[in-house]
Specification:
Elements: E1 6-11, E2 14-19, H1 30-44, E3 51-56, E4 60-62, H2 67-71, H3 75-94, E5 99-103, E6 106-108, H4 110-117, E7 120-124, E8 128-130, H5 144-152, H6 154-163, E9 166-168, H7 169-174, E10 180-182, H8 187-199, H9 203-216, H10 221-235, H11 239-249
Helix pairs in contact: 1-3, 3-4, 4-5, 5-6, 9-10
The structure holds acetoacetyl-coenzyme A.
Acetoacetyl-coenzyme A (CAA) binds next to helix 2, strand 6 and helix 4.
Length: 259
């Protein structure tokens, strides 16, 4: 499938999506959101892919939803647009694939929201992160008011949402919003190294873990623990469980097949 606003590369089990609208700092318009939803489904259904990476072309990750397009929207159109953004984030969160965000620059508004829907976030020292929507007379519409407090707590989240302030990568790391700060020239190398490490694990287990954490965080603890027991016991019907435990006892590295 060919895309206009994104570049997709598939190599050695890793699918890399690069948002490619550098002239507007990779702002997310309708068409880009639609392409992203399609590519996330494409990677999901590709049995050769086990980890996905999302990054941005040139100096930005994503500077937000496309303000030029939003400026023209009425209430109904904004509802559809917000729905499209939420659909994308849900596809990423519900995906069997671990998604790594490689945040190479601005991750603002919808960019911060997309980053937060991913599973692991690496950011370059050049990254600037925030939810500046309040400065446009709106608030986040792709999940920012919900995912941000779940990730960093409501006090700090409200500060960022109410002031619209952007923070650098070091501060984002300090408050637990991202996993690691990396020198810009090392960002993709480090991201791929991380992806390679996850590729050596059981793909059944990476999808189970992702689902348990994402579902569990939104429901009560006893129900979430019940989900874990169900998934834990189901793990014992997999070849990977046999391989992992046998390899341990035979003092060798496991070779997981994702089955
Ligand atoms: N939408 C549309 N165009 C954008 C954009 C956006 N979100 N962000 C940047 N651009 C465009 C600029 O208009 C500019 O275009 P022209 O060259 O045609 O003038 C081009 O990208 C380069 O941007 P700047 O000249 O502004 O670059 P800069 O380095 O001086 O500043 C910046 C960079 C601080 C990121 C600044 O561009 C900026 O503040 N962008 C908007 C950030 C923002 O408010 N994001 C939230 C959007 S709302 C949202 O995301 C809602 C939601 O939750 C769904």
């Amino acid at each position: 499938m060919s895309y206009k606003h994104i570049i997709v590369e598939k190599k050695n089990g890793i699918g890399t999506i690069t948002i490619n609208r550098p002239q507007v700092l990779n702002a997310l318009n309708r068409e880009t959101l639609e392409e992203l939803i399609t590519v996330v489904q494409e990677l999901e259904n590709d049995p050769t892919i086990h980890v996905a990476i999302i990054t941005g072309k040139e100096k930005a990750f994503i500077a937000g939803a496309d303000i030029t397009q939003m400026q023209e929207m009425n209430t109904l159109q904004a509802k559809k647009f917000g729905g499209l953004g939420h659909q994308l984030m849900q596809h990423i969160e519900n995906s069997r694939l671990p998604y790594i965000a490689a945040v190479n620059g601005y991750a603002l508004g919808g960019g911060c929201e997309l980053m937060m829907a991913c599973d692991i976030i690496l950011a370059s020292t050049h990254a600037k992160i925030g939810q500046p929507e309040i400065n446009l007379g709106i608030h986040p519409g792709f999940g920012g008011t919900q995912r941000l407090p779940r990730l960093i707590g409501k006090i700090k989240a409200k500060e960022l949402l109410l002031t619209g302030d952007t923070i650098d990568a070091q501060e984002a790391y300090r408050i637990g919003l991202i996993n690691k700060v990396v020198e810009p020239e090392k960002l993709m190398e480090e991201t791929e190294k991380l992806a390679q490490k996850i590729l050596t694990k059981s793909a059944v287990q990476t999808s189970f873990i992702k689902e348990l954490v994402n579902k569990g965080i939104n429901i009560d603890l006893p129900s979430a623990n019940t989900l874990e027991i169900a998934s834990f016991s189901a793990s014992f019907a997999t070849e990977d469980q046999k391989e992992g435990m046998t390899a341990f006892l035979e003092k060798r590295k496991p070779l997981f097949k994702g089955k």
